[in-house]
Amino acid sequence: VKQVANLTLVSSACDMVSTAYASTKESHPYIRSVCDAAEKGVKSVTEATASCVQPVLTTLEPHVAAASEYASKGLGKLGEKLPLLQKPVDQIIYDTKELVLSGVADAKDAVSS
Q: Residues 40-58: pLDDT tens digits?
């Protein structure tokens, strides 16, 4: 999970969502109250679940470690094959717009000639 969260694409997307969420809560009092209630509910459920799940996680720890190692290797290979994962969302959006505009310009030139 940490490795995925550290991917530039994922971390920049999380930052964007977090900023939009905070901005929306700040701008709209009714939404803020609903979000605050939802956050309290999630926190309560998380705390209650953590104590119940801990014994199970302790039992499954060797299996989780093996799965984690396998996933880590897979993410490493995925990062090599998809350099897009190392770019922030803003850069991907900009590059995509440039690519589309270039394609449109080329099509326009082809039709004109």
A: 999 999 988 888 888 888 8
The tokens for 90 are: 């803003």
Distance (Å, whole) CA 12 – CA 88 = 5
Radius of gyration of the chain (CA): 22
Contact status, residue 87 vs residue 8, Cβ threshold 8 Å: yes
pTM here is: 0.65
Q: Roughly how many angstroms between the first and final C-alpha of the chain, as a whole number?
A: 53
Q: How far apart are CA 56 and CA 72, in angstroms?
A: 22
Alpha carbon distance 112, 99 (integer Å): 20
Which one-letter amino acid corresponds to residue 81? K
